[in-house]
Amino acid sequence: MYAVILAGGAGTRLWPRSRKGSPKQLLDLVSGRTMLQATYDRILPLVPSEKVLVVTGGSYLPLVREQLPDLPERNIIAEPAGRGSAPAVGLAAIHLARSHPKEVMICLPADHVITQEDKFRRVLRAATKVAGRGYLVTLGIRPRGPETGYGYIQTDEYLESISVHEVYKVKRFTEKPARGTAEAFLRSGDYFWNSGIFIWRVDTILGEIERLMPKLYAQLLEIKEALGSAEESQVLESVWGSVEPETIDYGIMEKAVKVAVLPTSFGWSDVGSWASLIELLPADGEGNVVVGDHVGLDTKGTLVVSPKRLVATIGVEDLVIVDTEDAILICSRDRTEDVKALVAELKRKRREELL
């Protein structure tokens, strides 16, 4: 089996720490290792380094090489530009298809936190057995609350059990519901958070891309023909410019038929916003989470990220305060999903130096 780490996202909802030159997956936010390094470390007991691929943006190549010095350089695949997870997965798949078309590939976003790593790997082992029979497989996380920042997976008929892991067909995917809908999902008992972790055979996913995204498939074939040749970089650059952005969820998973899910829990979190970081770090007696230097009076439920200078607060509650050298973010805890919109506003105002 192979592992593909998807490390090309922009991470705009973690601005101002996450920037174009240093996106969140290349930052140490939680564990003393960057999120990319933690993802790599997590998969190594299951997949050796020579079978780990990293798909990332071309501009991130030096940082990826620096952070993963033991990863063979040929295993780092550079996208000329970000086009979403569907093209990124396809690009990794055509590299593997040249000599390993029947192998299972595990696709892992580089920005997850997982606290129960042994359990995580046991679930993956079970999932690879299902994927080996031609299923597109994902892991569904048992929801801890009516989270509106995650997608949901509804289970359909029971398929089998592998060890202690139950396997179900997928009925539907739902993207980031309103709170009332999320609460109804929890009450139903058959909805799980979409982990964004996918397991399938190389030939299976390429067959689904051919069926459901034929234009992308043709573009991938053109790139594949040039792999290993002197024209590889030129062809990739030329073709990639016309590749349309798409997620693997919308482009493939929501439309595919033979899709299975393993409901599970292994201390999973998608660090998609500052609010999600609050849940991962220890809080003081007033519910404040501090990374760096902070002194507060009558301060409650507030996240302060300020590694280089003191932030002082008086009489504030449920805020997110993130201090960097050239920008400070202050927002309500319940509006952290809107940081992405704030970044779009900075882009509209042509504040490129802050992006």
Write the layout of secondary structure elements.
Layout: E1 2-7, H1 35-43, E2 52-57, H2 61-67, E3 76-79, H3 85-97, E4 104-109, E5 112-114, H4 117-131, E6 136-141, E7 152-162, E8 165-174, H5 179-188, E9 191-201, H6 202-212, H7 214-226, H8 232-240, H9 248-253, E10 259-264, E11 268-270, H10 274-280, E12 289-297, E13 303-314, E14 319-323, E15 328-332, H11 339-348
Describe, in plain words, how this protein is organized in 3D.
It is a single chain. The chain has 355 residues and is of the alpha/beta class. The protein folds into 2 domains: 2-269, Spore Coat Polysaccharide Biosynthesis Protein SpsA, Chain A; 274-354, no CATH class. The protein has 11 helices and 15 strands. The protein has helices at residues 35-43, 61-67, 85-97, 117-131, 179-188, 202-212, 214-226, 232-240, 248-253, 274-280, 339-348; strands at 2-7, 52-57, 76-79, 104-109, 112-114, 136-141, 152-162, 165-174, 191-201, 259-264, 268-270, 289-297, 303-314, 319-323, 328-332. A 5-stranded mixed β-barrel has the order 6-9-7-8-10. Strands 12-13-14-15 form a 4-stranded mixed sheet. A hairpin with a 4-residue loop joins strand 14 (319-323) and strand 15 (328-332). Helix 6 (202-212) crosses helix 7 and helix 7 packs antiparallel against helix 8 (232-240). It starts with a strand and ends in a 7-residue tail after the last helix. The relative contact order is 0.15.
